[in-house]
């Protein structure tokens, strides 16, 4: 099960998270959002506690949708220490998304566990 966050809980669950968070902006009417759900659940299982996966209903959280300038759904943001490190949107299909998720998994699960709650960009992390 994916943790659903809202504007009220976004800061605590995402921006202040001690581990990277993959945020899935979706909507109930979005067919592609439902199609990619199994890939996201598989990604969550493979990453374990290394990366947190959360969902945001873009329709019900308009302020977040505007803040992150969503142009299409689904949009996936990898946020680490309050900074967007990766943005996945307008992917061409399941295989395209699967490959992008695999690259994220490899980058974030094979590195030292030295996360900081400080919102700094100088942590030796790769940048988008």
Automatic annotation (TrEMBL):
<protein>
    <submittedName>
        <fullName>Thiol reductase thioredoxin</fullName>
    </submittedName>
</protein>
<dbReference type="InterPro" id="IPR036249">
    <property type="entry name" value="Thioredoxin-like_sf"/>
</dbReference>
<dbReference type="GO" id="GO:0015035">
    <property type="term" value="F:protein-disulfide reductase activity"/>
</dbReference>
<dbReference type="GO" id="GO:0045454">
    <property type="term" value="P:cell redox homeostasis"/>
</dbReference>
<dbReference type="Pfam" id="PF00085">
    <property type="entry name" value="Thioredoxin"/>
</dbReference>
<comment type="similarity">
    <text>Belongs to the thioredoxin family.</text>
</comment>
<keyword id="KW-0676">Redox-active center</keyword>
<feature type="domain" description="Thioredoxin">
    <location>
        <begin position="1"/>
        <end position="106"/>
    </location>
</feature>
<dbReference type="GO" id="GO:0005829">
    <property type="term" value="C:cytosol"/>
</dbReference>
<dbReference type="InterPro" id="IPR013766">
    <property type="entry name" value="Thioredoxin_domain"/>
</dbReference>
